[in-house]
Amino acid sequence: MGIDSGFRAYSMGIDSGFRVYSTGFDSGFRVYSMGFDSGFRVYSMGIDSGFRVYSTGFDSGFRVYSMGFDSGFRVYSTGFDSGFRVYSMGFDSGFRVYSMGIDSGFREYSMGFDSGFTVYSMGFDSGFRVYSMLFDSGFRVYTMGIDSGFRVYSMGIDSGFRVYSMGIDSGFRVYSTGFDSGFRVYSMGFDSGFRVYSMGIDSGFRVYSTGFDSGFRVYSMGFDSGFRVYSMGIDSGFTVYSMLFDSGFRVYTMGIDSGFRVYSMGIDLGFRVYCMGFDSGFRVYSMGIDSGFSVQYGNRFRFRVYSI
Known about the structure:
Glycine/proline-rich protein, 10 strands
């Protein structure tokens, strides 16, 4: 050991039991290098007058491999190894985290915070896994990946809680969705139970395109603010292939296939039918009816009025 008038120890060697190999102190109680060997091993450490640690190595239990602090208690690089392992971490005086890696149990691979607690990039791996996420001060999420149970692969939300893209995979699967501040849905895909493949709704709750698949299946549909349907496909029981309504609930074209098949129909406000085709039992291939219920043309003269 060597000590000078400033009580500085420049080197020290201890070999049995608690071995210290090399140490340097100065008058500010700064340690520049230190080596321990038994139990709680420190391999290298640097501390300055502001009690800043620049490099440290521990080995047993809770191992720290590299760490840097400054006067604002900022950590620049840290490595832990046992139990709750942190591989890299950066803090500044605003307690912002720039990079972090955690490996056991609840693993985080990369994370960035700023003073507004905004997260820029994050990775989780166990249980509820998030692979990429971006928040700003308005709590907006731009991209997100979740993998177990309720899996979301991509999402964009702004301050109006608008979702632009979303993917969910287990149970109630949504593959693509767009919302804006008026809660309008532009594109959506569902897969289990009540499957919707494509849908567009605006602020007037108008549906422009929709696909359903279970029970009462609708494949294509268009509504406007007058609840007019422009195109519709239904497949179970009473199948409608094409339909057009206007605000007077007039039907211009229709296709029905089970039991009582209608292939083409036009009805106006006076409930006049202009063209119609039936195929089962009482077949009518072409017909014109006016408001006086007179038949203009028909393949057969047997006629029944069916309510639509």
